[in-house]
Write the structure tokens for this entry.
Amino acid sequence: MDEAALAKFREAAEEGDAEAQFQVGRAYFWGQGEKQDDVKAAEWFRKAAEQGHPRAQNNLGYMYVEGRGVKADKPEAAKWLSKAAEQGGASAQDDLGLMFANGQGVPKNLPEAEKWYRRAAQQGLTEAFWHLGELWYFGGEGLKPDYAEAEKWLIKAAANGKVAARNMLGVIKEHGVAGPSDLSTAAAYFQQAAAEGDAKAQMNLGRMYYAGQGVTRDLAKAYQWLTLAANQDDAGAKNYLREIASTIPPDQLKAGQELAAAFRPGKAPKIKAKPAQAPNAAVGSPELSAAAQDFLVAAAQGNAQAQSNLGRMYFTGAGVGRDLAKAWQWLSLAAGQGEPTAQSYLREITPSIPADQIAKGKELVEAFRAKTSAK
């Protein structure tokens, strides 16, 4: 903003014009024509907000959320965001949805969060697409998960460039919670997000390359993607990498290290998909049986990471016969020890496991605990 324009806005702002007050606030907020000053920005936003200016209300709410120029105050933030949201501000609607989803400044209320996200999404806000997808995927008190609804919104988010949405779409396709499992499509989604630097997608793609799920098995690429995820402090990737590193031949390990070192975030290369397999078939190559056996030995000794890995293998059928009860058993045991990947994975897959298999899994858990406590 040039000095002449700012001078005009300041003059009008002093006379009480709400739009001018908002513009002066923006000048201080961004340091455009004025020295950046959050306190003065908040003061001018407040003047405009009190006159009903929706963008000023939204910005003031944001400043109360972040504690910029004012003391952080979630209830006060919710008050101003509500005013802006009621006037149709898409960003404020999405932010208010987040506050209801997390119980920040307002009581936690997932249906109310969904309402505000949906209003923002109807205005085409990408973040609202993403938040709706997450909300319907995980659900919670007052909102039962709906994977088909989640997939619908995540597709919109992904189409608008939301990288994390591509990873979650991969999870949906891998687990088959919104339709038949499609490992090739899952791998393609993971590849897209991984190539953009998403750590979770890199972790998931590494798993699939190691197991040969949806892609041709490639230990070098498995090591590459898991290493890239681990370098971003992804706990699941670190654990998985530690478990499988000794099973990768030295030449493949070196190749994987070179691939990881050469990686630069950007456009995803095409991947060679494996032929489709029946959903209940054991997927992955026979060589994985040795890895599964190693995990089984460590899992039986109480190793939480091995239990988590084994549970995932039983759920997907990678290197073992697919067994949902055993998947639930080992993931539950790992989750009970606080293993974060198992906790997250179990939360994701439990709705897709039949009740009788969960009941059987619980029996296996109790039998395992009884056996180990008797030693």
Q: What stands out?
A: The chain has three domains: 1-104+113-119, 126-274, 288-373. The two ends are 75 Å apart (CA to CA). Residues 158 and 165 are 5 Å apart (CA to CA).
